């Protein structure tokens, strides 16, 4: 949005503005579903009424990369399909995030063949790995919340030398049902 360039100084006003911008961004993640196999069904279940991804502001699935900022790779990716995946990722506007959902997207899963990509992180920066075959909707929601927590705290994705995008590389753990930090509300103390 160009706001980072406009906010050059640190004072109470800009700090509060930054919090509002971060809150808006994390509350309106628009996923780009790259669903190629059975994990895609679980992704659909996550958006349906029982799990209701809308509670996290991330239910607006966009099938145009120009309107999406969260790519969810759900399922195995063939070598033939890889250029399409990369092109869609490149067409998404910054700041953008990637979730690798399921064993196939993260490692190739049981498809240890020359025709299947053995982990999409070899070709696009993956911020959150959601393990499982398939992962349950709660696991995917945990992955979305991990990105939301990062946006709350840091705002933008990390970048390395030369502005190169550095993936967050977070792995979602199996649910323990212990309470975890929730996204920060606008009314809470920073
Ligand atoms: S991880 Fe399992 S459920 Fe997901 S696409 Fe691969 S085989 Fe299907």
Task: List the topology elements.
Elements: H1 3-6, H2 12-26, E1 31-35, H3 38-47, E2 70-74, H4 82-91, E3 97-101, H5 102-107, E4 128-130, H6 137-153, E5 170-171
Parallel strand pairs: 1-2, 2-3, 3-4, 4-5
The structure holds iron/sulfur cluster.
Iron/sulfur cluster (SF4) is lined by residues 37-39, 75-76, 102-104, 109, 133-134.
The radius of gyration computed from the alpha-carbon positions, rounded to a whole number of angstroms, is 17 Å
Distance between the termini: 23 Å
Give the overall shape: globular
CATH topology description? Rossmann fold
Q: Which class of secondary structure composition applies to the elements?
A: alpha/beta
Please give a structural write-up.
The chain is α/β, with parallel strands linked by helices. The chain has a single domain (9-156), classed as Rossmann fold (3-Layer(aba) Sandwich). 33% of the residues lie in helices and 11% in strands. It has 6 helices and 5 strands. A 5-stranded parallel β-sheet has the order 1-2-3-4-5. α2 runs antiparallel to α6 (137-153) and α3 (38-47) packs across α6. The two termini are 23 Å apart. It binds iron/sulfur cluster. Iron/sulfur cluster is lined by residues 37-39, 75-76, 102-104, 109, 133-134.
């Amino acid at each position: 949005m160009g706001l980072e360039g406009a906010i050059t100084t640190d004072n109470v006003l800009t700090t509060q503005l930054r919090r509002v911008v971060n809150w808006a961004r994390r509350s309106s993640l628009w996923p780009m579903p790259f669903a190629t196999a059975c994990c895609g069904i679980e992704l659909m279940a996550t958006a349906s009424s029982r799990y209701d991804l809308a509670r996290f502001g991330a239910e607006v699935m966009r099938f145009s990369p120009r309107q999406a900022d969260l790519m969810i790779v759900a399922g195995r990716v063939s070598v033939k399909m890889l250029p399409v995946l990369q092109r869609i990722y490149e067409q998404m506007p910054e700041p953008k995030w990637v979730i690798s959902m399921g064993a196939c997207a993260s490692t190739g899963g049981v498809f240890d063949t020359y025709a299947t990509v053995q982990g999409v992180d070899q070709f696009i920066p993956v911020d959150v790995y959601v393990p499982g075959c398939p992962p349950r909707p709660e696991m995917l929601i945990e992955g979305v919340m991990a990105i939301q927590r990062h946006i709350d705290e840091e705002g933008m994705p990390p970048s390395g030398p030369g502005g190169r995008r550095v993936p967050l590389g977070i792995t979602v753990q199996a649910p323990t049902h212990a309470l975890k930090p929730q996204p920060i509300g606008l009314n809470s103390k920073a």
